[in-house]
Amino acid sequence: MLKSYAISLLVGMLAGVIYSLIAVDSPAPPIFALVGLFGMLVGEQIIPLVKRLIKREPVTLTWFKQECVPKISGTPPPDEKSG
After folding, report:
1. Which of 36, 64, 41 has its CA nearest to residue 52?
2. Which of 2, 11, 30, 67 has its CA 20 to 30 A from that of 80?
3. Is 38 helix (H, G, I), strand (E, B) or coil?
4. How far apart are CA 1 and CA 4, in angstroms?
5. H or E stretch including 68?
6. Please, are residues 52 and 60 in contact by the beta-carbon 8 Å criterion?
7. Which helix (H) or strand (E) segment is 2 a member of?
8. Cα distance between residue 11 and residue 32, in whole Å
């Protein structure tokens, strides 16, 4: 997991260096970029939701907390006992 963060940081830094070398500003102000990334994380959960609805499986808060929230927030899923 730490390796992924390090690679992501290094690639981001490389993009920043390239932008600086060619005198181009970052393509989006940081808040818009973060909101866009959040939208991507939420949007990724639409496919599992649609698949579940097609299979006529219930979409419950427990399912959402177990399957979607960890992928959106980057936190581990809650224990089944406490969820």
Report:
1. 64
2. 2
3. helix
4. 5
5. none
6. no
7. helix 2-21
8. 19
Question: Residue 6 is which amino acid?
Answer: A
pLDDT in tens, the chain (83 residues): 678 888 888 888 888 888 888 887 776 677 777 887 888 889 999 999 999 999 999 999 999 999 999 998 888 877 755 54
Task: Measure the CA–CA gap between 79 and 63, rounded to whole angstroms.
Answer: 12
Say which residue the tokens 């690679």 belong to: 7
The neighbour count for residue 68, using CB atoms within 10 Å, is 19
Q: Answer for the pair 66, 83: CB distance below 8 angstroms, yes or no.
A: yes
* pTM of the shown model: 0.56
Q: Which two tokens stand for residue 9?
A: 């940081």
Q: How far does the chain reach from its first CA to its final CA, in angstroms?
A: 24
Tokens 């994380």 correspond to 41
Q: Which helix (H) or strand (E) element contains residue 58? A: none
